[in-house]
Amino acid sequence: MFDVGEILYLLSNKNHKIVPAIVQAVTTVKKIGGTEISHEISVPGFKEKLVLEKLDVKSFKDIYDLRKHVLALLEEKLDEEIKGVVALAQNDRQAAQRELASDLPVTESRLERVQHSPQDTIQEIELEDGVKARVHLPKGLM
Fold first, then answer.
1. Based on the domain organization, do 11 and 55 belong to the same domain?
2. With the CA atoms of 57, 61, 62 and 66 taken in that order, what torsion angle do they form, in degrees rounded to the nearest 10?
3. Per DSSP, what are the bridge partners of residue 19?
4. Domain residues for 13?
């Protein structure tokens, strides 16, 4: 419940715009089913009074609470955006890996050991990165 004369900060649930308002009247109606409270407010730019409870807004007494709420909304939206981008990047990477694997004639899963003959010539070569490899060359290639 808000008091008469109190300044409120209204955050629209539709477009997240912030509008200041001042409470002009508070009406309390007691019924058998309970008590109903309504707040009549004035907003800059509107000549007529508005009923706070009929508006699609979230109201704050304190700008610090408003700021905290808006930052939480922004953080949530940013997290959703980042999550979507990460998922897109992972899907793209997986697709690229599948494409690369299908282009290779021999993949690790299909690699077979080649039987070497005693007549093979074994040569040791050094690769660009300094790694040494032993290559078995069949007798007919030498």
1. yes
2. -10
3. 10
4. 7-61
pLDDT digits (tens, 9 = 90+) for 86-113: 888 787 777 766 766 665 554 444 444 5
Give the pLDDT of residue 49: 94
* Same domain membership, residue 68 and residue 57: no
**49: phi then psi, degrees, rounded to nearest 5:** -80, 150
Residue 72 backbone zone (phi > 0: left; psi -120 to 50: alpha; other: beta)? alpha
Element (H, E) at 9: strand 7-12
Looking at the structure, do residues 29 and 54 belong to the same domain, yes or no? Answer: yes
Sign of CA dihedral 17, 18, 21, 25: positive
**pTM for this predicted structure:** 0.58
**Integer angstrom CA distances of residue 103 from 5, 18, 81, 107:** 74, 56, 33, 9
- Report the number of distinct structural domains present in the chain: 2
CB atoms within 10 A of CB 110: 8
